[in-house]
Every structure is written in C-alpha cells, then in structure tokens.
C-alpha cells in the first residue's frame, strides 16, 4: 500500500443522520463495503476524530478520507538485488546464480526481491513472451533454493527453451544434502506430485498428481546425512524436496517437509540444503550444447563442512 487519494468534504444537509459508511458511499462515489473497509483500516476521520462505520453524521461535519492506492502484487518492481551474479550474458539468454531469499518473479503473497525485478533494474531487455510478471521465464527455482538458472532475452530463445524444458532435453543437476542414507545409494523416484490436500503452501506425492521423475546418486555418505547429485526429468514445484521427504530422507534444514529442526540448528541452516549446480542445454542461437554451473553458497558450504566433520 502507498498513500493515494486524499479527500476532504463537508456533509451536506441531505445526508444528515446517515451512517458514516452510507454517507461516504454517496459523497465519494465508493461502495458501502469499500467505505466500511477504509473506516476499519483507520483511513477516515470525522471532524478530526476516528469513527465507526455505524456512527451517524451531522450536517456540516468534515469527513477526511485517505484512499490508499492498491498495489498490484504482480507488478514488476525494478530493483538491484544484492547477491545475484551474472554467469553468462548474450543476445539470447542471461544465466544467473540466484541467491536464497529471492523469488524468480512477482506473485500474490510475495513482496520480497525478484530475479525479474533485478534484471529490469539492471537494464536487461527480457523476452516479452509469457505473463507480464513472468516474461522470459522458462524455469523457476524456489525462493529458498539457490543456484544456476536461465532467463530468455529474445522471443526465439524463449520459444526454443520453453520447448526444451517441456520435452525434457535440458540437463538440470542439483546437489542435495539429505538426512540419513537413501537405500539404494542411487535410484529413481517416479511418483506423481500434487498440491497437498491440507496445506496449500505444500506439495505431496498424490495418486492424481502430475508425473514427476527424480534420479539421484549418493556422492558422499556421512554419519547423519548424505550428499546427493540429483537430476530432474520433470520440473514440478518442490519436486526434489517432496520426493526426498517421501523416501523419508528430507533435505537437511527443510522444516516444511519434515526435516529435523535440531540437525538444522546444529549445521546452522535456516532453509533446505538444495542447490542448482549445473544447467545444460542446446543454445537457442548457436545450436551448440552449453553448460553453466554454480558453486555452493556460504551457508550450504558451511553446513556441509559440519556434517563432514561429525564422524
């Protein structure tokens, strides 16, 4: 919300004795509901004092109203976001290293920094394909997941890469530190994922969910946790986190999906240990196979060291 329209009017004789919300609706051309909301939010004063919606107005009383401008949650706000690194940039694509705590694009309920906002703020021209707040976006990483991702600058790149992701020809490799030791040490989780029946911010393995395939192999096995290399065949929201939790080996620090809070505290994590390490695809302009990579950020590297040393 930002301050918007400020209006002051005197109550005409014809509205004397009316309820404040009804009088405001007539005087300012608002609906009764909107008038009542403004009163409840403390944006209305009559003769310098706050009022209740059912209070009555006297003729000549001064009604002072501030009508806040409603901010569209999907508007892209250009702002430079600290920590976003540009790995590669050409006329077709820009490849970035996304830090934790940054959403890819604006969405209802998210008021923090976004990748799209950063690129606009930094003067990048992004493809105009896709919904306005998601222009140029062909893949996403969760707010709490860091790592390498690609954004399209040209329409041709957008259409070719969108297709590549859809047809699963993009190599998406993640590293995940999970609790315990998956058995077998390498394998495939083929289990459909849908929105959680009870919690709308979570996802779960659901019989009627969308097909989801995750391949994993163990890189390091430690006393409390294993470092896995994970390759995604599909790209569902929270896919790795849901599949690992379904195996009873949630990502370390992933309290949303059942991780042990004591272990999270011990390794100093406030988010899931999950990082997009590599992304490989056919370059939309040159047609050659390209691969981009990202190293572990400080919080994940430090947590991994604690696990490595706890033998």
From TrEMBL:
Its EC number is 5.4.99.-. Pfam families: PseudoU_synth_2, S4. It catalyses: a uridine in RNA = a pseudouridine in RNA. One of its GO terms (biological process) is enzyme-directed rRNA pseudouridine synthesis. SUPFAM superfamilies: Alpha-L RNA-binding motif (SSF55174), Pseudouridine synthase (SSF55120). Keywords: Isomerase, RNA-binding. Belongs to the pseudouridine synthase RluA family. This is Pseudouridine synthase. It comes from Nocardioides luti.
């Amino acid at each position: 919300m930002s301050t918007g329209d400020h209006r002051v009017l005197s109550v005409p004789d014809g509205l004397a004795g009316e309820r404040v919300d009804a009088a405001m609706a007539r005087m300012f051309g608002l609906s009764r509901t909107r008038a009542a909301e403004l009163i409840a939010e403390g944006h209305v004063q009559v003769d310098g004092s706050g009022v209740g919606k059912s209070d009555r107005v006297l003729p000549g009383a001064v009604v002072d109203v501030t009508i806040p401008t409603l901010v569209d949650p999907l508007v892209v706000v250009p702002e430079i976001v600290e920590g976003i690194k540009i790995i590669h940039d050409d006329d077709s694509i820009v490849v970035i290293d996304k830090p934790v705590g940054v959403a890819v694009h604006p969405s209802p309920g998210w008021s923090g920094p976004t990748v799209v906002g950063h690129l606009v703020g930094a003067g990048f021209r992004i493809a105009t394909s896709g919904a306005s707040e998601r222009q140029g976006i062909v893949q996403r990483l969760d707010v709490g997941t860091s790592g390498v991702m690609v954004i399209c600058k040209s329409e041709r790149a957008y259409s070719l890469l969108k297709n590549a992701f859809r047809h699963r020809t993009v190599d998406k490799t993640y590293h995940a530190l999970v609790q315990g030791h998956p058995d077998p040490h390498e394998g495939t989780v083929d289990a459909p994922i849908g929105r959680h029946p009870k919690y709308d911010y979570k996802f779960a393995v659901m019989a009627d969910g969308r097909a989801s395939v995750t391949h994993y192999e163990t890189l390091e096995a430690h006393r409390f946790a294993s470092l896995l290399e994970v390759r995604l065949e599909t790209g569902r929201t929270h896919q790795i986190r849901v599949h690992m939790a379904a195996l009873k080996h949630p990502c370390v620090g992933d309290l949303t999906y059942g991780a042990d809070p004591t272990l999270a505290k011990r390794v100093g994590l406030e988010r899931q240990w999950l990082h997009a390490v590599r992304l490989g695809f056919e370059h939309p302009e040159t047609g050659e196979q390209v691969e981009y990579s990202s190293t572990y950020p400080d919080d994940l590297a430090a947590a991994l060291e604690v696990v490595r040393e706890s033998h």
